[in-house]
Amino acid sequence: xxxxxxxxxxxxxxxxxxxxxxxxxxxxxxxxxxxxxxxxxxxxxxxxxxxxxxxxxxxxxxxxxxxxxxxxxxxxxxxxxxxxxxxxxxxxxxxxxxxxxxxxxxxxxxxxxxxxxxxxxxxxxxxxxxxxxxxxxxxxxxxxxxxxxxxxxxxxxxxxxxxxxxxxxxxxxxxxxxxxxxxxxxxxxxxxxxxxxxxxxxxxxxxxxxxxxxxxxxxxxxxxxxxxxxxxxxxxxxxxxxxxxxxxxxxxxxxxxxxxxxxxxxxxxxxxxxxxxxxxxxxxxxxxxxxxxxxxxxxxxxxxxxxxxxxxxxxxxxxx
Length: 320
Ligand code: TRP
Prior knowledge:
By secondary structure, the protein is mainly alpha-helical. It is built from 13 helices and 5 strands.
């Protein structure tokens, strides 16, 4: 069985876009792959400067994935920081990476172009990410388009190491660029935390309802026929309740059905899907001991794979 691995940065409370665009697709891979999903807490440190918030986000993310159906018996769920071998590999890889490659990194270049003075951590972010992937003999990495460059760099440095030290030292991974649908937020743009257009995943139903009611729509009257195509309300409905999408489309087209009605139907559909998961999330989030125990058990297993890789790398480079 091939290995699929991905990292989740604990920088915010997951929203509906994360659920539909990342969590669901990643969970659908468990039958086909050996899956490792980890919480990239050291990566988050490039932006999060509030220790208590980071501690909270790590558990938020763990509880979210578990509530959405991640089975820790089948998927290794762990914290990046619980496997310190990742730093050993980061160093070895750094010695093979040209600074020019890191200077071309999107995140680093964007920070420079905003006039910020990026930290060395942000500069080295891709080296740590390459180590994350290569440490676990990963075959495929499900990612969004924004992470493509990181994957190319990972493949590049793995091939370089293999070329210099022997072909069977590292597994060269491939990106699985997600076919995940575009999930639009309340303003019609791609849902993203930084744009403030997110629809909450596990906040109380009242807040969810309020957020859905704030989705931008066109301004026809109640009786007017309306086009489903291009409307955020309909698109979201089609993602959450595909079997009833046609029905909504017809109601919109025939008139007498307002955007308020459509939003109410959308709210009901989302609530039916995530309500039970919210309950599971709240229960899990409240039991931090149990949550930490799951993460530690995942890390123990992940660490066995990591140790074997580090052993191979050390002996390949002459440090054994
Ligand atoms: N950089 C990824 C992001 O911002 C998170 C990440 C860290 C990751 N390490 C990884 C993703 C390893 C895939 C594999 O979303």
